[in-house]
Amino acid sequence: MTPPEGTAGTPPEGAPGERPDGASGTGRRARGLRRWHRLPIVVRLVLAVAVTMSLVLGGATALVYVRVQHALDQQLDADLAAYYHDLQGDLRAGRKPGGPDGSAYQVLDTHGRVLQASNLVRTKQLLTPAQITSVTGGTTVHRDIGGLLPLNPHTLRIKAQRVRLPDHHSVIAVAALRRGHRDEALRELLAQLGMAAGLTLIAASYAGYRTARAALDPVERYRRRAATLADGTSGVRLPVPEDRDDELTRLGHTLNQMLDRLEAAAEREHRFLADASHELRTPLSLLRAELDVALHRPRTAAELTETLRSVDSEVQRLINLTNALLDLEQVGATDHLTRAPVDLPGLIASAVDPHRTATTRAHRSITADAAPGTVDVDATWLRPAIGNLVDNALRHSHGDIHITAATHDGNLRLTVTDEGPGFPADFLPKAFERFARAEASRTSPGSGLGLAFVAAVAASHGGTAHAENTEHGAAVTLDIPC
Fold this sequence. Notes:
Blueprint: H1 21-38, H2 41-93, E1 103-108, E2 114-117, H3 129-136, E3 141-145, E4 156-164, E5 170-178, H4 180-230, H5 247-296, H6 301-332, E6 340-343, H7 344-352, H8 356-361, E7 366-370, E8 374-377, H9 379-396, E9 401-408, E10 411-418, H10 450-460, E11 464-469, E12 474-481
Parallel strand pairs: 7-9
Antiparallel strand pairs: 1-2, 1-5, 3-4, 4-5, 6-8, 9-10, 10-12, 11-12
């Protein structure tokens, strides 16, 4: 079927593919915003300053121009009114009209014919036919002839009104004054305002550029220093002045703190990998040796059972070591603990109870003296830390174990003491280091991570851990803000 003429190939209104003007305008605005945001910040700031100053200077220029024009027009209208009054008096008195320099007049009949005129306007038609009709009807007409631009030496301001003569005839009196001085003053004012506005705009743009550069120079210094960080240089920090406290300085301090945390995290990761590889090597080597020996020649069932027991012991050692490393790394990387009010006697009891069976078998006792009250701590980490201290005391001493816990001035002091030989003197300075073990305890079970974990838990709470020897044995004390 052939479509009607004039409609072939034209999609109906609202058809798919049609692009309304609104959508097109939105797309143009989006493209404009993308181009704007791709500009350097300094350029955007200078353009913003220039546009803002242009609007301010344009408004100020317009205001000054309007005020001066109004004052000049008032003066010109006052002079024209005075001259028209004199002209009207001369016509009614039958005298030849005169006037000041730059003045002119015409006297018309009611049909618009010129009856009298000064030399300046003798051949000019000052009123249009419509204005002549309006004045004949009694209306006063004000009119400007010529504009401010282009330059015209014969610009006039006229006033026309019907005048009744003594012989009862009516004529139209047209008084005119040159506007040259007024127009020249306005043109000079425009030139001066334009020059002043242009110079002010240039100065403001330059000041905006220098201000933007001065404000963004620290950012550029940060960028150059960060580029050295990207090359793998360690220990480098952004150059932040210490005698300032503005937004960019605070940003620099924040970035340096972030770099400190990142470097600390990288150091923890490096230490974790080094510790894990060092400590896992020995049990893995023992496992390999046990299996090699078991496979070297045929073994009896008893020998294989003994080998499997040894392998199981080493596997358990690997599991314990891995768990200890992971716990230590996790508590060391915890920035924010989940503190909550915890009953202090209940906390101590829950940490000690799992060890009472082993204590009873060893014919030893554990006593706990916890002051009543609550403490604001993270029990998830503090409970196993107390358990590590009790476990260390069980393995490295031979007497009773005593725990004291009390709060004073918002600080929890928890001490675990035992009866035994205490810490070797050369071991005390490094007691809380990872994998630090006294020579006498190297043949006993353990990974050397227990006290390191205790110190990490105390540090994560904002506290400290301290080890010392007493007259009866060893004592480890935790001081934790609560």
